[in-house]
Design brief:
It is an enzyme of class 3 (hydrolase). It holds the Pfam family Abhydrolase_1. Keywords: Hydrolase. GO terms for molecular function: 4,5-9,10-diseco-3-hydroxy-5,9,17-trioxoandrosta-1(10),2-diene-4-oate hydrolase activity. It is built from eleven helices and eight strands. It is an alpha/beta fold. The protein has a domain of 202 residues: 3-Layer(aba) Sandwich (Rossmann fold), CATH 3.40.50. The protein has an eight-stranded mixed sheet, sandwiched between helices. α9 links the parallel β7 and β8. The chain is globular and about 50 Å long. The two termini are 27 Å apart.
């Protein structure tokens, strides 16, 4: 069966409103959580990987609140995302799942794994979690996101997309047009501005570099699930030195760095990423042993 955006699309009503997700495959549950940025959705992040993982897993690709076709929630964005994802698992009667999270999705996944350890079989992150050790915050990609929130043009979407990848040929006119269309949808643009306005980034910067900086990583030692941190060596959004602290703090953790790769390892290093993560998931799935 060919999995398409339409034939995998599902909606569910939760207390806060509607959540949209894609579902494909059967087997143990694999929850895939997308990142942030202009025009991002669960489908945009993982459409190329869905068929591969659906061969062995029941894949749930969620649109986080305020992204894609999911309703927004108020308050702290990360807390809101965590609560909505856990509520989605409850609604779908999923007791336990493997989690893959990209960037913001990795941050959300890390909090779920720390707060609900009994619900997480394994945790894989593509960038996202950690704290800058040697690199400046915000990095190039985040600064370009802020520029887009102030002047949401197609040109600024293109410049941001080019910061996301090592291989510039991946940034096609079709990708730019698709992301720009979704990025300027009013709900999506409001979500992006909430996270990446200049004022928001200034607050985050002060928090990450001040006396409360360790609060961004204090939950990591509570993650007991087997954890795989993946990172692009050439990530211009979240430089790879960010990975070093979580690699040490998470008890059962390993780190894999992809060469010639930016922020989207699952897209830019598709075959290597799928092979690595599939082996990790199978190793830590009790029903396969």
């Amino acid at each position: 069966m060919e999995f398409t955006e339409d034939n995998t699309s599902q909606f569910v009503e939760l207390d806060h409103g509607t959540v949209h997700y894609h579902e494909a495959g059967t087997g143990p549950t694999l929850l895939l959580i997308h990142g942030s940025g202009p025009g991002v959705t669960g489908w945009a992040n993982y459409q190329g990987n869905l068929a591969f993982f659906a061969n062995r897993f029941r894949c749930i690709v969620v649109d986080l609140p305020g992204y894609g076709k999911s309703d927004s929630v108020g308050g702290d964005p990360v807390t809101g995302c965590v609560n909505v994802v856990v509520s989605l698992l409850d609604k779908l009667n999923i007791d336990k799942a493997h989690i893959i999270g990209n960037s913001l999705g990795g941050i959300v996944g890390s909090h779920i794994a720390a707060q609900h350890p009994q619900r997480v079989t394994s945790f894989t992150t593509i960038g996202g979690i950690g704290l800058n050790l040697f690199s400046a915050f915000p990095g190039e990609g985040l600064n370009l996101l802020t520029a887009f929130t102030e002047d949401p043009t197609r040109e600024r979407v293109e410049v941001w997309l080019r910061s996301m990848v090592y291989d510039q040929s991946l940034v096609t006119d079709a990708l730019i047009d698709s992301r720009f269309k979704q990025a300027t949808e009013p709900k999506t643009l409001a979500t992006t501005r909430e996270l990446y306005s200049r004022e928001s980034i200034q607050r985050i910067t002060a928090f990450r570099q001040g006396e409360h900086a360790t609060k961004t990583i204090e939950h990591l030692p509570s993650i007991i699930a087997p954890t795989l941190i993946t990172w692009g060596r050439d990530d211009r959004v979240s430089p790879m030195d960010i990975a070093l602290i979580p690699m040490r703090l998470i008890p059962n953790c390993e780190l894999h760095v992809f060469s010639n790769c930016g922020h989207w390892a699952m897209i830019e290093c598709k075959e290597q990423f799928e092979s690595l993560v599939h082996g990790f998931l199978v190793l830590h799935e009790p029903s396969f042993h």
